[in-house]
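re: the backbone from monday

yeah here it is again, tokenized this time
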């Protein structure tokens, strides 16, 4: 079977595409900046992993060697102006290296857009990437999709939380724009089919579901499937994309940095202009998934805690990414540490189970109000905040997002290390661990902070009284819950 390279394999769509490629018999190679993140995924042992950055040409050369099909699923969601140069550089690397390597097909997932209007920066960048790939000399299929509906998609979560939180909603005027959403299962169907198209096909195709709706209709369609009353939505001309993204960032778990490109793309009516895709790829058996059915399927996945991939695990632009330095490397550096420990009669297995259930709906086992205040401050400042939650309450893996933290390291049964992604005047980590001790276990935790300048030192000093309450209470609650569960 052909060898396939997936760029963006740990993203929302890529993480769902890889297991379906494997099930179809393809040999799969993935490119990842974090090998440990890929290794934590259930399909990792069945793929070849290339470590590196798509911006590095030599890495792309290695990744495309002896590859038949390249899936380009990388999209910058930064609100910074540099994302266009970032996307263009990657596209040019892939186009050039794929041509030199003799790749037979490139498949790119772009954005549905009108042809006769000035596009938002993010839609314009996606369009430019598609044009670069189509001009690469390698047969390319560009699938231009609009709002993707599925459990864990940022677009769906935005609709879900706006509808659930606000019975009356003053909204930007784009809520009256027509949109053609598509179910994530149908996106995956087209992506798989695109790899099998003949080499004569070098074209962009619009793809969309069977329904053309206003954004306000989508919100009330969600309300109907969720058993909520119909929402009253008032379109206001005064909410600019910038203001609307701030508003979405406060009302929903989707942070402003991700909300803004989504909001900007909604400034245009995004409707399929033609159905040329039907001549190249037959409509799936049973037809395309309606909007209401896609919402019903997504809610079903959420209800049983079976969300395959989620926007929450997306890397946040400008968030800290360097791992915790080893203790010897602390020499000569300013570092603040807060240690807590608690002996318990519970087994290490029971304590570990409680540790891995932390965050999301469970909370942080102590001072919920203080955690909420800190999360709210982070949201107002443009950070991710506590409401990002976690993809699954059953499974936690390296690389997963966990409220304002990201799982940096997991030694099952021993250690959970979290790296802070909140806005801070420094870099912070939180370690939670357990080890055997006489008739039970010893639970320990360590908060580590590397301050930046005077502001960082003042921040740590101001937080010390709260740390004394939060972390001591956390240690007590974790061991108590474990002991109660053990009986």
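seq for it, each position gets an aa:
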């Amino acid at each position: 079977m052909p060898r396939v390279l997936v760029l963006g394999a740990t993203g929302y769509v890529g993480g769902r595409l890889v297991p379906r490629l494997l099930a179809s018999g393809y040999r799969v190679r993935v490119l990842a900046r974090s090998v440990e993140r890929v290794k934590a995924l259930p399909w990792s042992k069945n793929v070849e992993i290339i470590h590196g950055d798509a911006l590095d040409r030599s890495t792309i050369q290695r990744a495309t060697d002896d590859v038949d099909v390249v899936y380009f699923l990388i999209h910058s969601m930064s609100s910074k102006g540099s994302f266009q140069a970032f996307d263009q550089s990657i596209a040019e690397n892939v186009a050039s290296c794929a041509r030199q390597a003799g790749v037979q097909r490139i498949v790119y997932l772009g954005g549905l857009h009108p042809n006769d209007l000035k596009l938002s920066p993010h839609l314009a960048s996606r369009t430019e990437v598609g044009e670069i790939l189509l001009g690469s000399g390698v047969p390319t299929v560009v699938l231009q999709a609009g709002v993707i509906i599925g459990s864990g998609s940022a677009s769906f979560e935005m609709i879900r939380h706006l509808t659930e939180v606000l019975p009356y909603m003053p909204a930007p005027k784009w809520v009256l724009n027509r949109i053609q959403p598509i179910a994530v299962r149908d996106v995956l169907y087209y992506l798989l089919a695109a790899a099998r198209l003949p080499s004569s096909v070098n074209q962009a195709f619009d793809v969309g579901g069977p329904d053309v709706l206003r954004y306000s209709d989508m919100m009330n369609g969600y309300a109907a499937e969720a058993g909520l009353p119909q929402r009253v939505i008032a379109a206001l001309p005064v909410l600019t994309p910038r203001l609307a993204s701030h508003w979405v960032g406060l009302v929903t778990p989707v942070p402003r940095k991700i909300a803004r490109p989504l909001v900007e793309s909604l400034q245009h009516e995004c409707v399929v202009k033609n159905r040329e895709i039907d001549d190249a790829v037959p409509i799936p058996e049973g037809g395309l998934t309606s909007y209401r059915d896609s919402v019903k399927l997504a809610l079903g996945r959420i209800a049983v805690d079976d969300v395959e991939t989620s926007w929450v695990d997306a890397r946040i632009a400008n968030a800290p990414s360097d791992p915790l330095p080893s203790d010897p490397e602390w020499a000569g550096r300013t570092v603040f540490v807060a240690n807590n420990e608690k002996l318990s009669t519970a087994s290490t297995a029971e304590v570990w189970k409680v540790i891995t259930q932390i965050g999301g709906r469970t909370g942080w086992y102590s001072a919920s109000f203080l955690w909420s205040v800190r999360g709210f401050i982070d949201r107002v400042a443009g950070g991710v905040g506590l409401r990002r939650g976690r993809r699954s309450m059953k499974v936690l893996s390296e690389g997963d997002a966990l409220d304002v933290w990201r799982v940096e390291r997991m030694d099952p049964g021993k250690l959970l290390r979290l790296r802070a992604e909140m806005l801070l005047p420094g870099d912070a980590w939180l370690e939670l661990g357990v080890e055997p001790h006489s008739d039970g276990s010893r639970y320990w935790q360590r908060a580590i902070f590397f301050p930046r300048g005077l502001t960082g030192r003042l921040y740590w000093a101001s937080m010390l009284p709260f740390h004394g309450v939060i972390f001591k209470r956390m240690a007590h609650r974790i061991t108590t819950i474990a002991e109660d569960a053990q009986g």
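The two ends are 53 Å apart (CA to CA). The longest strand covers residues 426-437.
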